[in-house]
Write a structure and sequence with these properties.
With 301 residues, the chain is mostly helical. It has helices at residues 7-19, 34-48, 56-71, 75-88, 95-114, 130-140, 148-154, 158-182, 188-201, 207-219, 224-233, 242-249, 259-262, 276-280, 284-290; strands at 294-295, 298-299.
Length: 301
Amino acid sequence: MLEPANSRFIINYARGLDRQKQAKILQGKASSNYQALKWEFIYDIVLLSQHQVFNKEHFIQRTLARIAAHYNVEEEMLLIYFHDEILLADHSLPFDVVQTICKLYTNLISKKQESKTSPTIPASKHKQTDIVAKQLLEKYIPATPTHAHLIDQLSKQPSFVRWLEPILKTAATISQYLFSKYRIKPQYNLLLEWLIDLSRSHSAVSLHTLVRLLIRYCSDPLTEKQQAVFLEDIKRYVSTDYLLATYLAESRPVKELPISIILTMPPLQTYIGNAGMVLILPFSPYFFPGLNLPAGKVLKE
């Protein structure tokens, strides 16, 4: 594999492109060989940049440019359409893919605003500001003094909050049900702390995965009999909650750890500076003398 460290990002993005085949902007243009062409474009771009540091924005931008040129559509319009579609309808894409698309869109709008001679770019349906993000969080989570500071902290990542809206909606629905049925109070502090941790370290997680974790967490305090009733009762909300509908439609739900356990776990991805020193240390007594570097117990200057 050419990019093993970024393979998950590339595959997830490719899946997102598959869903755009029948998009209005490509409808009637994308033929049966779209799948092969897509991977041909991706392979070419990865191959050309294999001796450079992988840049997610450059990768997506070059892929969209190749698709736009092949199907004779405007690259800018394809980017805008893709930006709005993944935020509105595609809940299977992980946040790192969504975030990269948002950055490209923001850069495009900024360039067009700086250029007075450029044609007008249609406005996106979404605003990415801290204020809008805070309003969105407070729509689903009460801004009480006990966790207002957590809302402020999470709202500093507006694109992540916007992407999270379906999860916030599902969490509010389930919380209301559990309180009215079993008088279980929502643990908003735990939820917000978990989302803040996700925003920092779990960017490869999709909304589909999050809703499974959320349901496991919410049903954790219930007895086995109550859990069966809970899963039956939430079916009433599927008409207004896409994520719940997706979860209940799964014939074989993925087994994952409950959120109550994940909350106590360290981040999935933790950067450790100079971690390679641990690997090389046992070999240093052999390497350094071979290079004639030691002078007693110290290295020569």
